[in-house]
Write a structure and sequence with these properties.
This protein is mainly α. Helix content is about 55%, strand content about 0%. InterPro entries: 4Fe4S_Fe-S-bd (IPR017896), 4Fe4S_Fe_S_CS (IPR017900).
Length: about 110
């Protein structure tokens, strides 16, 4: 039996990343939750929305502001950004408990 829609992994991953970038509201919740911000030497006065805008630019073009590059390079892989992401929470509601669903009214 042949797979229904065989797409190379790299293509699928690139499409997922592009979907995430398009869905990102630049709310900055991921930066606020991240334990890497201070160790990266990024001032807490730097607007998290600006850092995220720079990350989007980095992913799409390879260029971006210094604070965004520092944040990306200092990633500790804690997953705190993923847990804080509003888009991810709404896209994958089964990953969240009943308290979260009550909080967001779903």
């Amino acid at each position: 039996m042949q797979p229904m829609n065989e797409v190379p992994f790299e293509t699928s991953l690139a499409e997922y990343a592009e979907d995430m970038l398009d869905a990102c509201t630049r709310c900055g919740k991921c930066v606020e939750a991240c334990p890497s911000v201070e160790p990266a030497g990024i001032s807490r006065t730097t607007k998290s929305e600006d850092i995220i805008g720079g990350i989007r630019e980095l992913v799409r073009t390879g260029n971006g502001p210094e604070a965004s590059r520092k944040w990306a390079q200092s990633c500790m892989r804690s997953g705190a950004c993923i847990k804080a992401c509003i888009w991810r929470q709404s896209a994958f509601p089964a990953e969240h408990g009943a308290a979260w669903h009550r909080e967001v009214g779903q």
